[in-house]
Design goal:
By secondary structure, the protein is mainly alpha-helical. The chain has a domain of 158 residues. The chain has ten helices and five strands. Helix 5 packs antiparallel against helix 8. The chain starts with a helix and ends in a 13-residue tail after the last helix. The C terminus is likely disordered.
């Protein structure tokens, strides 16, 4: 999911709950899902991915001030919030540092992600998410330098941007955990290498796949990022038992 789609999702939730504390299950339903499923859990994780959603209290979540600034802030506040959200994921921050002046080419992006250990099947999804996010940030910067009136930033760009609905990035906050690349269903049968099936069920996750050493290294990074998503759900389930700070082991 790129930042444009994440902002639209956050706005939908904001229109219902504002910045009040809610639960993950209630938030999932407010976003139109039947409940807390794998798809809705990934959608909420995408909001955390950009710093639009945060944990609050025992098992609670709420939209952040960054979300408010993007939706309702003054033009400069909005630009600043979008710029911060665009590089909030550790991977995107590293890409910005590596390519500070212009958008990297397709080959540059592929090479960067390969060196980071991303599986071939995951790279196209990560690339679409990153390029859509960076374009939005650059458009906001250009609107400032060219004096484009307020209201022609993220909302204007949204209809023309490519949306990635299957991004399964379950990352944690910047600087705390590595970015989680999407785990794609195994479509190649038992012989398919480094293709992992992931099914999130509440505070548990089922993983299956055939991996070589490269795939194992990549999976370790994904599991590290997945811990935060499962930890949030674990706190929700065990709030009455007083285990809000306990991490769920994968």
């Amino acid at each position: 999911m790129d930042l444009i789609e994440a902002i639209a999702l956050a706005e939908k939730l904001y229109n219902i709950v504002r910045t009040s504390i809610t639960t993950r299950e209630d938030a999932a339903k407010d976003l139109g899902y039947a409940g807390l499923t794998g798809a809705s859990a990934k959608a909420l994780a995408d909001l955390v991915h950009y710093g639009l959603l945060e944990r609050s209290g025992k098992g609670g979540i709420r939209l952040t001030q960054r979300t408010v600034n993007i939706l309702w802030g003054e033009p400069e506040e909005k630009r600043q919030a979008i710029s911060e959200a665009a590089v909030y994921p550790t991977l995107f921050s590293d890409l910005q540092e590596q390519f500070p002046e212009v958008m990297p080419s397709e080959n540059q992006l592929k090479g960067f992600l390969h060196r980071r250990g991303f599986a071939d099947v995951a790279i196209p999804y990560v690339m679409k998410s990153y390029t859509g996010t960076r374009r939005l940030a650059e458009e906001e910067t250009e609107s400032k330098s060219h004096g484009i009136p307020p209201g022609q930033g993220a909302e204007t760009a949204a209809p023309t941007e490519t949306k990635v609905n299957d991004m399964t990035d379950a990352t944690t906050l910047k600087r705390h955990k590595p970015t989680l690349a999407p785990l794609q269903p195994d479509s190649g049968g038992a012989g398919a290498i480094n293709q992992v099936t992931m099914n999130i069920q509440g505070d548990k996750v089922f993983l299956s796949g055939l991996l070589d050493m490269k795939g194992l290294d990549a999976l370790e990074k994904k599991i590290a990022a997945l811990r935060t998503l499962l930890d949030i759900n674990h706190e929700t389930v065990d709030a009455g038992a007083g285990n809000a700070e306990q991490e769920n082991e994968v």
